[in-house]
Amino acid sequence: MEHKREYWFDLGLLTAIPVRGARTVQVPRRDIAVFRTANNEVFALENKCPHKGGPLSEGIVHGRKVACPLHNWVIDLESGHATGADHGCARSFPVKIENGRVFIDMGVAAAA
Amino acid sequence: MTSPDKCRRKLVVVGNGMAAGRMLEELFARAPGAHDVTIFGAEPRVNYDRIMLSPVLAGEKTYEDIVIHGDAWYAENGIDLRRGERVVAVDREARTVTSSAGTVAPYDELVLATGSDPFVIPVPGASLPGVVTFRDLDDVEKMLEAANKGGSAVVIGGGLLGLEAAAGLALKGMKVTVVHLMPTLMERQLDLSAAYLLRRAIEKRGITVETGANTVAIFGAGKVEAIKLEDGRTLPADLVVMAVGIRPNAALAKAAGLEVRRGIVVDDHLATSDPSIYSVGECVEHRGACYGLVAPLYEMAKVLAARLAGEEVAGYAGSITSTKLKVTGVDLFSAGDFSEGDETDEVVLRDPSRGIYKRVILRDGHIVGAVLYGDVADGSWYFDLIKKHADVSEMRETLIYGQAFQGGGAALDPISAVAALSDDAEICGCNGVSKGTIVGAIKAKGLTTLDEVRAVTKASASCGQCTGKVEAVLAATLGAAYSGSSRKPMCKCTDLTHEEVRGFIASKELKSFPAILQELGWKTSCGCPTCRPALNYYLIAAWPGEYRDDLQSRFVNERLHANIQKDGTFSVVPRMWGGLTTPAELRAIADIAEKYQVPLVKMTGGQRVDLIGIPKASLPNVWAELLAAGMVSGQAYAKGLRTVKTCVGKSWCRFGTQDSMGLGVKLEKLMCGSWTPAKVKLAVSGCPRNCSEATVKDIGVICVDSGYDIHIAGAAGLHVRATDLLGHVDTEEEALEVCAAVLQAYREQAVYLDRLYKWSEKVGLDAVRAQIIDDLANRKALYQRFLVSQRAVRKDPWAERVAGRELHEFMPLAKLDIIPAPVEA
Ligand code: SRM
Ligand SMILES: Cc1cc2nc3c(=O)[nH]c(=O)nc-3n(C[C@H](O)[C@H](O)[C@H](O)COP(=O)(O)OP(=O)(O)OC[C@H]3O[C@@H](n4cnc5c(N)ncnc54)[C@H](O)[C@@H]3O)c2cc1C
Ligand code: SF4
Ligand code: FES
């Protein structure tokens, strides 16, 4: 039987991530970019653009999207999918905010 | 009064506020006479409409006007009202409550409706007389008493309550300042555009608004006299109103051992962790949420009343709330989720001349939020659509025009829509120009372009927001003869061109993003990745020292002061002034390259050294070491001054006519750090042999025996273009002044991302020459403005970062070497 696995890891204060910006979280198998939008929502995507692997954490965040810094693909922060004419997907991870702190589900982020 | 009856259940209610009152009304309607009700109210009065305290303060209403339940109502319903009696303890074993007056009342069912307490920020002096909160009638009376004496008031908190208090006190003749911690007013209920309009309206009432201001102390001998802000300023105050938020009043419940988190925890039927104790109102926490508005409390009251009446009802499922501000003359409305979006998930309508802003936020064909300012007539319609989760994809095009507009048939394309308008329909709101006037002018004077229409009729000459409509009138009037315009709107957020936007920023003194977006009628709520960097540059260029650079509107290279490489590492290029270096600098660079194992060291095409392949986290350390060796950022990443290449020149070369190296260094020192529409490269050659390739640079100086030939508008990248000769000057001072004046004219006039040659081709070489070579006074003025703007960028960006400015951004938020074991849930 499948058990639901959750391991919420405390990444610290939301305010440590710049508004309309991102910070990274390094786990053994990958780097994860944690984004903060203008309205203080957070999203986490693997820090690797589906085009040629650009670091999405360095892109310009607008609305719930980020423009990759290398060749300007626009990636949807919620789903990780490239928007417009481009195709591809950056993996997304569960994150939540509680009491002004950001948590990531390490059960998902560190595994697989 | 009905007499107590043994069979009737004893219902005790703690708190005689709005939630309790509504709950009892609902209960008596469902189960008349079923309960013996005792109410304890800490306030010495009957139940009144707390919301209306603002109009009472403003003098628009009296206490009598706002009473909800008068003495007669309590009598009719046989309620034992204990006014002025605070409940101090609940005995759950004995099922009794005890009041401050010593009354012990037994209950079968107990309802806690204790509301909230205003939050008082714990600064020294917070308990001085003259410091009040804004919660009940006593507070209002204290404020009115202070206001009668005049003087100044400081309201701490720029939310709903704070602004209502400020407006009321200002009406009573006090000199009011609102001190707000966050950068914008009512940030939890409004987006930036609406907050901008609100601030303007509040300031129009003579109220001073200080945002981003933190209160650290309150002073006074015996009574309040002033407050002190974190930035060191003190503001005089005869009255201080704290309106910084509320906290659910759960102390009694907590002392009784009920489950309390932020508020008293209740289930969907408003039961607390003790099944015979219920709670309703602002004091509760339901599914993790606490509320501070009456609509949700009324929904709760209904559910609880049904429950107490013994009815089977669906539980309370939480509420979506909407906000209005009760300041006469300020119309705003917001509801739901209005997080920043882009044009695909929002519809925006602005009318700058009437101060209107409307924004509806959509997700998957449903409205999820709305922000309205200036015209709130459709607020309840949008709110209803949100709550019903209605599918609005069919009416997306017309949604923003409101309910009255719906069902009006298919939406017209803009040209047919304008063609269908009557002649007296107003096209330009600012200048009051009707369609008939424009059509008349087009026909009578044979106008064919937007600029001509603007010049003749003034239509779209003020805020430019009706530009699209005026073009549609041209197209509708001229038909096929209208060639369309060569005008290129800046981006899909506006119909205005870059040049027009720049013009308005200067003429209307627009100094912030929200000011531009609102006053120029942007079609999106916060711009897009195309216009944001451009507007950020225009603001920097127009208001040096005043406007604060918005780093998040910049591309990564300018944000991190280094060039990103394809593998996500960065390159670091220190300045080598005029291409000159020293053994000591080279040694330092060599040491750093070894120490940080820099994978590649390369001479650039710009006469300096590039350290390539440095990880982000090492950047601050590498910079610190370069700075220690006397080097600064070469801004190889900037839309700004890059390099000034030089050749050897008169000091060594047998052909040299002037000191080309010296002039190159002076030019680089004069111009470095400057932000420009696109990158800028200079070169100085010592003679016409031109070894520094000055004739393919943005600005090139060629030294000749008689002085300096100044060339401009060259390029050697995607497009190769030899420079044009701008003019000749005799002295080095003049050469510096002319080069800086050219740069400043380019900074002030060019479209963002246009290299200098594009600007020069657009305005024409003769026009550039006229401004700079022929008009000496204008040249000097340009030069002075350049010096002023350079003052604002004197700091080296690397040094600022190394000194700690947002240094943490270079570090990962977290680093985990071990995979934590997932917990089974
Ligand atoms: C490092 C360097 C190549 C080298 O190793 O020599 C270089 C590297 C880049 N150039 Fe260049 N250009 C370099 C000299 C030049 C020159 C030669 C010069 O300046 O004398 C030119 C032609 C002159 C000119 O600009 O007209 C040049 C014309 C371009 C262009 C075309 C610009 C144009 O408007 O046509 C681009 C593309 C752009 O800017 O959009 C570009 C863009 C780039 C970028 C920034 C590409 C990018 O966006 O990542 C490269 C950055 C790599 C990096 O991380 O350092 N680079 N680039 C040179 C740095 C000079 C310096 O010391 O700062
Ligand atoms: C100035 C102002 C303007 C407002 N404007 C709006 C608005 O425009 N729209 C909107 O929706 N909402 C508005 N509100 C909020 C609204 O008034 C509250 O949400 C609502 O009054 C809360 O109702 P309640 O019954 O939970 O609490 P309250 O109305 O505060 O009632 C609680 C009562 O319990 C009493 N009490 C507390 N502890 C005890 C105890 N131990 N024993 C006995 N009695 C006790 C208190 O004295 C108080 O009288 C405004 C509030 C204020 C202050
Ligand atoms: S020419 Fe310039 S932009 Fe092109 S690969 Fe070389 S360095 Fe990069
Ligand atoms: S790597 Fe992201 S757009 Fe190319």
Can you characterise this structure?
The complex is a heterodimer of chains A (112) and B (825). Chain A has one helix and eleven strands. With 112 residues, chain A is mostly beta strands. Chain A has a single domain, classed as Rieske [2Fe-2S] iron-sulphur domain (Rieske Iron-sulfur Protein, 3-layer Sandwich). By secondary structure, chain B is an alpha/beta fold. Chain B has six domains: 9-116 and 248-308, FAD/NAD(P)-binding domain, CATH 3.50.50; 131-244, FAD/NAD(P)-binding domain (3-Layer(bba) Sandwich); 331-405, FAD/NAD-linked reductase, C-terminal dimerisation domain (Enolase-like, domain 1, 2-Layer Sandwich), CATH 3.30.390; 414-516 and 529-548, BFD-like [2Fe-2S]-binding domain (Arc Repressor Mutant, subunit A); 556-637, Sulfite Reductase Hemoprotein, domain 2 (Alpha-Beta Complex); 641-797, Sulfite Reductase Hemoprotein, domain 1. Chain B contains 27 helices and 42 strands. In chain B, strands 5-2-1-9-21 form a five-stranded parallel beta sheet, with no helix packed on it. Chain B has a five-stranded parallel beta sheet with strand order 11-18-12-13-14. Chain B has a five-stranded antiparallel beta sheet with strand order 23-24-27-26-25, with helices on both faces. In chain B, strand 12 (152-156), helix 6 and strand 13 (175-179) form a beta-alpha-beta unit. The longest helix of chain B has 18 residues, at 732-749. The two termini of chain B are 57 Å apart. Chain A binds chain B through residues 3-7, 9, 11-12, 16-21, 23-28, 31, 34, 37-41, 52-55, 58-65, 67, 69-70, 102, 106-107, 110-111, and chain B through 338-342, 345, 526, 528-529, 532, 551-556, 559-560, 564, 566-568, 616, 806, 808-809, 811-825. Strand 3 (21-27) of chain A pairs parallel with strand 41 (814-815) of chain B. The complex binds siroheme, flavin-adenine dinucleotide (FAD), iron/sulfur cluster and FE2/S2 (inorganic) cluster.
